[in-house]
Amino acid sequence: MKYRAILLFGAPGAGKGTQGKILGQIPNFVHFSCGDAFRNLRVDSPLGRVFVEYASDGRLVPDEPTIELWKRSIEGLTATGRFNPEADTLLLDGIPRNPRQAEIMRDLIDVKAIFNLFCPVLDKLVVRLQRRALKENRLDDANIETIRSRLETYKRETRAVLECFPDTLIHQIDSTQEPMFVLLDILKVIAQIPKPAVSDGGTVYLPTTTPR
Ligand code: ADP
């Protein structure tokens, strides 16, 4: 069985994480950030060490351990009841991140939509990333060289992921808008996606008083 998935796509700083966190609050949607999964590893674990080595100069972690981490994380979310593959949709943020990862994941995910959070001026992203470095203590946002290198990695390896999927799935979203308007554009599309055959219908809130 393939996992139902929506891909949040875009350059570093485009706002995938911001939108993923909000959308992940909607019943039946589960946000998975690959960067967060790496950051949650202990830095003295074998994969934690690999992550620090690659991320600190803006490179992608090798594909096999990345996909393994993703699989294990989703299995963990399933085992603990936070993700129900029958009824829920994964919001994938930061994975797949190159055409090879897209190829490996082809048999594992059923992609319902891809949101390309585009930014016509990459320099705007640099400013956002520098602001985030101060707020979130991120080693890879901390210096301008690393930021430039991550944007280069995006242009060289990640952008081509869009070519692995049919155009009909790809929705262009202007990421320079305020977050609320980015969200609005995404929600307009998500609301049109047919629900899975099996759905728990989300949370049911019973009224405390009888409506009149
Ligand atoms: P951003 O969205 O700002 O680029 P992320 O938090 O998504 O930041 O990723 C931080 C770092 O984690 C990346 O620069 C990379 O080293 C590593 N990483 C995250 N996702 C992947 C992935 N799918 N494949 C390989 N490396 C990844």
Summarize it.
This protein is α/β, with parallel strands linked by helices and 212 residues long.
What does this structure look like?
This protein is of the alpha/beta class. The protein has a single domain, classed as P-loop containing nucleotide triphosphate hydrolases (Rossmann fold). It is built from eight helices and five strands. It has helices at residues 16-23, 34-39, 46-55, 63-79, 99-105, 122-136, 144-158, 179-190; strands at 3-10, 29-33, 89-93, 109-118, 170-174. Strands 2-3-1-4-5 form a five-stranded parallel β-sheet. The structure holds adenosine-5'-diphosphate (ADP). Adenosine-5'-diphosphate (ADP) binds next to helix 2 and helix 3.
Residue share in helix: 40-55%
Total strand segments: 5
The CATH homologous superfamily: P-loop containing nucleotide triphosphate hydrolases
- Backbone shape: globular
What CATH calls the topology is: Rossmann fold
- Helix segment count? 8
Q: Name every ligand kind in the structure.
A: adenosine-5'-diphosphate
Domain module tally? 1
